[in-house]
Structure formats: structure tokens, C-alpha cells
Design brief:
It is a single chain. The chain is an alpha+beta fold and about 250 residues long. The chain contains 8 helices and 6 strands. The strands form 2 sheets. The chain has a 4-stranded antiparallel β-sheet. The protein has a two-stranded antiparallel sheet with strand order 4-5. The longest helix is centred in the last third of the chain and has 23 residues, at about 210-230.
Length: about 250
């Protein structure tokens, strides 16, 4: 089987939950470009941005959770596209922790590792590979960020956003690369046939004691912060560790 179409433990697209979703949405009846558009938009906006228990959970678990971050949304997007006979591959990287500033605050931001595992899917389209990093943030969340920072129009780094154009970031599928965290990328590990191979080589963001701390203390706070931003809750006075970067990282 084409390595960019086959299932994997993380890309468990034969799981009944994923197959049921595909059948209910009628995605198999669409032409390939429309399949990509429909699945991409579903994962971007109907799977809201949020932090799962780990980066390497299977696609079926991401769908059951009903939310995801860069790595887990990538997993679900890849699994659904492969199930629809659309080749995908995994692009691994890290982001600087400054991209998380505002979601991670205070002492938790200070102790966070500088480099955070990051990824996006690439889809085979026409004669090349197209990056789909723009799937990460749902539109309501991105709208909440804009509402908090109404004077920001272009470069913005923080609150899960890394873009040179906050007003109109390239997040819609039109056959070319999409992106929403790209300016936070500080290491590029290249492409892999599947996420399973990448995580075996590079690990995940939360392991051991850090995983316990993340799931019992940090993750609930991060998800509450994300929900507050999405709902356009008025911003609290800016603290040194929660202001977005709009220029070179410090």
C-alpha cells in the first residue's frame, strides 16, 4: 500500500467512529478537492482548539474528545483524508514557547520547555504537497484573539497564534499552503510517512512527571484560558508573561 494512504496505530481510520462520520457527512461522494476542503473545514472549525491528554493519541480518541491542538488535529485530519483515499504525510517541527504565551501564564509559562513539539499535515494535491497548518485554530477562537487585541493587524505571536497577518491569515483551503502558527516554528524536522514514526524518534511534549503535572494542573487551566478567549471574555490587564509578541522574540 502507498505509505501515504495506509493506516497506523495513531491513524486508525478504520475505527467505526471515523467511518461513521465519513458516512454521515457523505464525503466519499465528493471529488478529491472537495473532500480535502470538507474534511479540512470540519477539523478546523468543528473540532475546536484545545489541549488533549497527549500528542500521540489515536485519531478516534481525538474525535471522541471533540477538540484538539496542532498535533492531535493533524492526526485526525490525516486519518480522515487517508480514509478517503487522499495521500497525506506528517511534517514535524518545534515551536518556541512564546507562541503559547497568554494560554500558558505565570509560573507555568516560566517552567515550560523552550521548544514544543509541533506538526502539521501535508496533502498530495495536483503535482505537489500542500501544507495544512492552518487547521489548528477554529474561527471562533481566532475571533476571540482579535477581539482581545483589536489594534493588532499584522504580526502577532502568542495565544496560540503565529502569523504575519492577524486580520487575514491564510487558513482557508484553496489548494495552497495554509498556516496559523508558522512564525513560531524554530526547528524543522522534515516529513514522515506517519506520526507514529515521528513520535518514536522525537517523543511527545508530556512524559513522566511532566505528563502528570500537565494533565492534573496545567492542561485544565490552559483549556479554561482557551474557552475564555473563544468567548471573548474581556481581557485582564496585561502581565509581562501574557502580552503577545509583535516583533522579534525576546
Amino acid at each position: 500500500m502507498n505509505p501515504h494512504l495506509r493506516p497506523a496505530p495513531i491513524l486508525d481510520y478504520n475505527h467505526p467512529r471515523l467511518q461513521q462520520l465519513i458516512g454521515e457527512r457523505g464525503w466519499s461522494d465528493l471529488l478529491t478537492p472537495d473532500r480535502i476542503a470538507a474534511v479540512y473545514t470540519f477539523v478546523r472549525d468543528e473540532i475546536p482548539f484545545g489541549y488533549n491528554a497527549s500528542d500521540d493519541i489515536p485519531a478516534s480518541t481525538v474525535l471522541a474528545d471533540g477538540y484538539g491542538q496542532c498535533n492531535t488535529k493533524t492526526t485526525l485530519l490525516m486519518a480522515l483524508l487517508r480514509a478517503l483515499d487522499v495521500p497525506t504525510r506528517f511534517h514535524g517541527a518545534t515551536i518556541h514557547k512564546s507562541l503559547q504565551r497568554g494560554i500558558l501564564t505565570g509560573a507555568f509559562y516560566c517552567i515550560a520547555p523552550r521548544d514544543i513539539i509541533h506538526s502539521w499535515a501535508e496533502v498530495r494535491h495536483e503535482r505537489g504537497w500542500v501544507g495544512l497548518e492552518g487547521v489548528i485554530l477554529d474561527r471562533p477562537y481566532l475571533g476571540g484573539v482579535r477581539a482581545r487585541f483589536p489594534d493588532q493587524r499584522d504580526c502577532f505571536l502568542g495565544y496560540g497564534v503565529g502569523t504575519t497577518n492577524l486580520t487575514e491569515p491564510p487558513i482557508d483551503w484553496n489548494g495552497t499552503d495554509t498556516a496559523i502558527q508558522s512564525t513560531g516554528v524554530n526547528n524543522d524536522y522534515g516529513t514522515y510517512d506517519d506520526p507514529d514514526t515521528f513520535y518514536r524518534q522525537h517523543g511527545t511534549n508530556v512524559r513522566g512527571l511532566r505528563a502528570w503535572l500537565f494533565n492534573h494542573h496545567i492542561r485544565p487551566i490552559m483549556n479554561r484560558n482557551v474557552a475564555a478567549i473563544r468567548s471573548c471574555t474581556p481581557a485582564v490587564p496585561q502581565q509581562p508573561d501574557s502580552a503577545p509578541f509583535t516583533s522579534k522574540r525576546r
